[in-house]
Amino acid sequence: MRKEQKAQVIDEIAAQLGDAEAVYAVDYRGLSVPQAAELRANLRQHDAQFRVVKNTLTLLAADKAGVVEIKELVADGPTALTFVRGDAALAAKVLDTFSRQADVLEVKGGLMGGRTLGADEFRRLARLPARETLVAQFAGVVASPLTGLVRGLGSMVSGLAVALEQVRAQKEAESPAQAPAAEAPAEDAPAEETPAEEPAAEEPPAEESPEEPPKAAAEPQEPDSDSDSDAEKEAQ
What we know:
alpha+beta
């Protein structure tokens, strides 16, 4: 490789180191060309690029980009780098799955957020859910108290509405039964007796002016026997 080409590769790797969200280093010995093509295609789906570069050029690029932490991962053996700009967990999952299925690609470690990852940490990262899943789970944890509060308030409001409706229905059911009771006395209640009207005091009959009783016709008086005797005596 000519000097100009080396300089170009160094610049490219330095740019990728600076832009990447994460960088994974693997020992690619035993990887065939078809396998490498398949791995590149799988990583490309998650906005990651698999690149085989000489260690000397990678070290120079690390110095140029100021990412010296990557140097310890490329010190021994042939090393291929995976530059991740998308979901770091998904890219790690692709590498880990491919390594176990093809029985190649010994993972050396990686670099994420300025922190170096060992091989064990890389595998734990590869077993994590995707970023979208983690965000959804975190959102669910944060929202669960609010959801419980909203559900509790909703239950209280619903219960209050049901109670008010029951009270209203009960009042409506009682109203028709009470109305006739106010109008007419209950059957078993003794009817109030209407006090009998006292007979009006009879007015004294108007005083009639005393009329003289009609004079009875004088009955012929029987002659007194004694008087007749005396009269006969005088005649003689």
